[in-house]
Amino acid sequence: MKLKLQINQVIKDAFIKANIEHKPMSVCESTKPEFGDYQFNGAMALSKKLGKKPREIATKIIENLNLSGVLIKAEIAGPGFINLWLNPLWIAIQCHNALSDDRLSVEVRKTPIKVVVDYSGPNMAKQMHVGHLRSTIIGDTLVNLFTFLGDEAIRQNHIGDWGTQFGMLIAYLEEIGEDGSVSLNDLEQFYKDAKGRFDADADFANRAREYVVKIQSGDAHCLQLWQKFIDISLGHCEEVYNKLDVKLTREDVKAESFYNDDLPNVVEKLQSKEMLQQSDGAQCVFLEGDEVPVIVQKSDGGYLYATTDLAALWYRANIVGAKRISYVVDARQSGHFKQIFRVAKEAGFVADDVMLEHIAFGTMMNKGGKPFKTRDGGTVKLIDLLDEAVIKAKETINDKESYSKEELEALAKVIGIGAVKYADLSINRESNYVFNWDKMLSFEGNTSLYMQYAYARIQSIFRRFDGEIKSDIIIGDRLEHRLSVMLLRFEDMLIRTALDAAPNQITTYLYDLVTLFMRFYEQNPILKDGVDEQTKMSRLALADLTAKTIKQGLDILGIQVVNKL
Question: Does residue 408 carry a pLDDT above 90?
Answer without folding.
Answer: yes
